Amino acid sequence: QTVYLSDYKPFGWRVEDVSLTFRLAPEATRILSRIRFAPDPAAPAQDFFLHGEDVSLIRATIDGAEVTPEITPQGLRCAVPEGAFTWEAEVEIAPASNTALEGLYMSGGMYCTQCEAEGFRKITYYPDRPDVMATFSVRIESDLPVLLSNGNPTGSGDGWAEWHDPWPKPAYLFALVTGDLRNHPDTFTTRSGKEVALNIWVRPGDEGKCAWGMEALKKSMTWDEEVHGREYDLDVFNIVAVDDFNMGAMENKGLNIFNSAAVLASPETATDANFERIESIIAHEYFHNWTGNRITCRDWFQLCLKEGLTVFRDQQFTSDLRSAAVKRIEDVAQLRARQFPEDQGPLAHPVRPESFQEINNFYTATVYEKGAEVIGMLKRLVGDEAYAKALDLYFDRHDGDAATIEDWLRVFEDATGRDLSQFKRWYSQAGTPRLSVEEAWDDGTYTLTFTQVTPPTPGQPDKAPQVIPIAVGLLSPNGDEAVPTRMLEMTEGKQSFAFEGLSARPVPSILRGFSAPVVLERDVPAEERAFLLAHDADPFNRWDSSRSLAREALIAMIRDGAEPDATWIDALGRVLRDETLDPAFRALMLGLPTQAELAQVLHEKGVTPDPDAICNSTEAMADAMAKRFEPMLDDLAAQAQVDAPYAPDAEQSGKRSLGGAVLALRTRLDGGAAARAQFAAADNMTLQLSALTCLIRAGEARAELDAFHDQWQGDRLVMDKWFGLQIAAADPAEAPDRAKALTQHPAFDWKNPNRFRAVLGALAMNHAGFHHKTGAGYRLLADWLLRLDPLNPQTTARMCSAFQTWRRYDTGRQAMMKEQLERIAAKDGLSRDTSEMVGRILS
Ligand code: ARG
Ligand code: ZN
């Protein structure tokens, strides 16, 4: 049942062409396939096997003659001629009963597909593996008005439409959508003068929420032309919004399918953060056209080849369009919150895993976000120019290929002459390296000595040294840059770097821009951190100094009952008053580490985290900040004021996020008066929701929650916010009960992944609420995961990761979490997805 990277073998045939006809009906869709196979002389001899799951074979022929294949639960085997042949089959499937949202399924009256990673085999019999690439022609027969598939439209009439995709692609990029849809059309002219028709297709009523996504698409198309010289390659580009979707979105060739939450937005219904996320997901899926589709993956172990690179590209896009410093801080905060716990717990796996049972369980923060960090390191090591050259070579050499990480690294070796064999460990070694630092000062020479250690992870007891790019700048005692940023390249377990000719002992700014995904272990005196907080020229490290001070102060409060650190609060106050600083940056400076992050850091220090103590200390710290900053709140609020019509751009959203942070502090002082006023006056969702959040936290939101419900009950995406926020911002003591009550609300449509996650995902994110000492949070989540698993294994398995940190808590909580994990594991007929996840978490 386990698949290994080392077992890779090519398929024995090439697929020259695929024709599919879909006769759509909710319970009995017929699919006719005609596929040209030709033996691949380079492949090892093998049986002819086609994947197929949950499909009924009606009939099959080879070169027109009826055949009777041997059918298994995974597919079919059949005797075939020696040379090339034409396979034809007719199968039947039931999209309306497909609750797993994988393959062809129905959502709100429309038909749609999700084939990555291995969903095409639920549509028809096929060699469903990414290294089998073919051109597809599709005919759709249906009474629904809009009939879409990949590629270019080639004909349509009453009740039918035909499409042809001239670009060979693996089956996971296949897509089909039909429904009563409305479109938001536009056009884009590529730089070589080709006109492309763009459409965003939505359900009636959502037409007004497409404009932002369309702008983002055009910006993405321009960016990929300008930065990488990559043009779009079909006559049309379609995007469809679907309400029931397991993930964010999918890059199917020419027909991207989006979770509606990842594309639909209007100022009244979406927050600034939603707008930014939509912009980056549209870019991400569009960028896949080159990094993913034109160049795809040989097998699923190479997933980071397309995902790490495409995340890196969408991050660059956002930093180019908005503020690079703010984007970097947000990304690192996410990495620490999501990837570090994964890399330091039972689910740790390399960026390129070497085995799996269910590939859907490996669409992880490690593959995506750490995968992007690895590309960032490569770029830092070779430099911007060489990186651009290597990417040109990659597109040139591998266009049309199903490639591997080895291919990717070879491109960099060939373009730069560098040996990347040691660097490759970033792809094979799991775990977060710990980097410790010693310093020495001697007569004008300042020396930094680094030691790296990567702790053991499941299946990898011993680790070898990694190549770590360490960006270092040195500050002189007056705060100027004595030595501007230098990229140190660490390759050994312990290594020293000397800076000569200095007139005074400097203060080091280490790991600028978070130049490598490591934990920097350095006991920095608080005065030195405060000095960096005041003077560091690197905005990331400036933020991180403050974050570290806050973390250390909170840990002292949690462990030793210390008082909030007035020195840090004062230093932060000086930064907040600095009007030359971007409001978005100041808002980030005001954010405290999350409670989960504090639990993670305590665990790293060998301390058992106490969720209630973490929560109480965080509250006490925020109260102390509110008191200390009270005199400047009016000024800050005035600077956060936006006096222009709403736009979700970096400038306005930065101001609103500062305003939101100020309102949160103010609510601790005024009991909610300002928040109530903002809620009443709000004409956009960002202001409305930030006010509502403050009121919920203050326990003063009853009337506003009802008003919000009545105002938005007709809007599914806003109602997800209504469900989620009540749990995310709930008093932890009440969070499990409130979540339980919401699961009984008539609008709790638990089969919809967005709604399920709104309540149960929010519970898992409310740290002290989930870890309620009665175990009520654990039980509620497990109850619902057990209920969802038979219907939707993918979403169930993904949400099991809420339990991944179980071993770090006290014995009482450990026992309760283990009990729930074992209860899930013991369930009869548990899906392969969930059983793999629970098994790994318990192991
Ligand atoms: N390739 C998609 C993206 O990152 C994600 C699809 C994930 N699907 C899945 N079943 N795991 O853009
Ligand atoms: Zn992707």
TrEMBL record:
Keywords: Aminopeptidase, Hydrolase, Metal-binding, Metalloprotease, Protease, Zinc. GO terms for molecular function: alanyl aminopeptidase activity; metallopeptidase activity; zinc ion binding. Its EC number is 3.4.11.2. The keyword Magnesium does not apply. Residues 212-426 form the Peptidase M1 membrane alanine aminopeptidase domain. Transmembrane segments: none annotated. Residues 431-522 form the Peptidase M1 alanyl aminopeptidase Ig-like fold domain. The keyword Zinc applies. Residues 527-842 form the Peptidase M1 alanyl aminopeptidase C-terminal domain. One of its GO terms (biological process) is proteolysis. Its cofactor is Zn(2+). It catalyses: Release of an N-terminal amino acid, Xaa-|-Yaa- from a peptide, amide or arylamide. Xaa is preferably Ala, but may be most amino acids including Pro (slow action). When a terminal hydrophobic residue is followed by a prolyl residue, the two may be released as an intact Xaa-Pro dipeptide. Residues 98-173 form the Aminopeptidase N-like N-terminal domain. It holds the Pfam family DUF3458_C. Belongs to the peptidase M1 family. This is Aminopeptidase N. The lineage of its organism: Bacteria, Pseudomonadati, Pseudomonadota, Alphaproteobacteria, Rhodobacterales.
